[in-house]
Every structure is written in structure tokens, then in C-alpha cells.
Amino acid sequence: MTEYHFRKAIISEIPQIWDILQLAILRRKEEGSDQWQDGYPNPEVVQKDIEKGEGFVLTDGETIVGYTAVLINDEPEYANIEGEWLTNGDFVVCHRVAISEKYLGKGCAQKMIGCIEDFATQNNIYSVKADTNFDNIAMMKVFEKLGYTFCGHVYFRGGQRKAYEKVLHKSKI
């Protein structure tokens, strides 16, 4: 049984992270999407994520199997949603979710989103907000499977994105 771990990424891991992102960018292109086809994300973005303590990896032993950026209350575009969020308080947002080719179909995206939810509750935040391209069917299915609610649309670099939110429950201690 594979035991995955979710932790902050370190600068020396940028090459492995970038390999995962490059293949994800290519995969989106092959699916006919314009998501991530404009030079974003790139290694500089990943480096900034890590320097700010916002870059995270999902690992299987020593192997990096996924990458995401996790931010707290830091997505200005979310204030301009065409629709309505479920909550207006503190939130965690994840961006740049990418899974290694070798680990596709193994539930790693769901596992990583679950880890992001754990990160939120550990920081006493009970809302996770996220968005994905209007044609990223795989990510939309992950959000739906994990109980996220479609809240409307947000725009990044001119592109429409579907916005989701999940309200987490405070654990009873």
C-alpha cells in the first residue's frame, strides 16, 4: 500500500516539479485546451511559490508525484466572481495542481486536495476555494467527487474558469 506524504517543496526540487508541470501542460494541449498554453506556469512561478512557502508536493517515498501552490486568503480575482461564494471569511486556495504521468488514474489529485483540506483545518480555516479551466473535465470530476460546490466563474489572463468551494467542518475535539 502506497503511503503518500504532503509537504512544502524545496528549491532543489524545482527540476522534478517542472518535469511534472511540463507534461501536464502538454497533456492539456493534447486535450485541445488553451489552459496553461501561454507560458504559465513556468519555473519562475514555481520558484516564487516555494520561496513564499506556498509550493507543496505530494510524495510517494522519495518520489514527487504531484505539485500544487496553496495560499491563504490570497486570490484577488476571487472577489470578482460572477456568481456567489458559499462563505466570505478566510479561505485556502490551491493553484497549479499537477500530477505525474506515472501516477495518473491512481487518485493522487483527490489525495492532494484532501491534504489541502487538512492544511486548511490545521490553520483553523474552514473553506477551500479553487478554480479550473472550463474544459478541464478531470479536475471538475475531482471537485464534484470531493463535495465541492460550483459557485460561478472567475477570470485569469482573459480566460474563464469555473470556481468551486467546499466548506469544511470543524472537527469535534
TrEMBL record:
Q: Which GO terms describe its molecular function?
A: acyltransferase activity, transferring groups other than amino-acyl groups
Q: Which domain of life is it from?
A: Bacteria
Q: Residues in domain N-acetyltransferase?
A: 4-171
Q: What Pfam family does this protein match (any one)?
A: Acetyltransf_1
InterPro entries given for it?
A: Acyl_CoA_acyltransferase, GNAT_dom
Which SUPFAM superfamilies does the entry link to? Acyl-CoA N-acyltransferases (Nat) (SSF55729)
Keywords of this protein's UniProt record, alphabetized? Transferase
Give the originating organism.
Answer: Flavobacterium aquariorum
Q: Does the keyword Transferase apply?
A: yes
Q: Which PROSITE patterns match?
A: GNAT
What protein name is recorded for this chain? GNAT family N-acetyltransferase
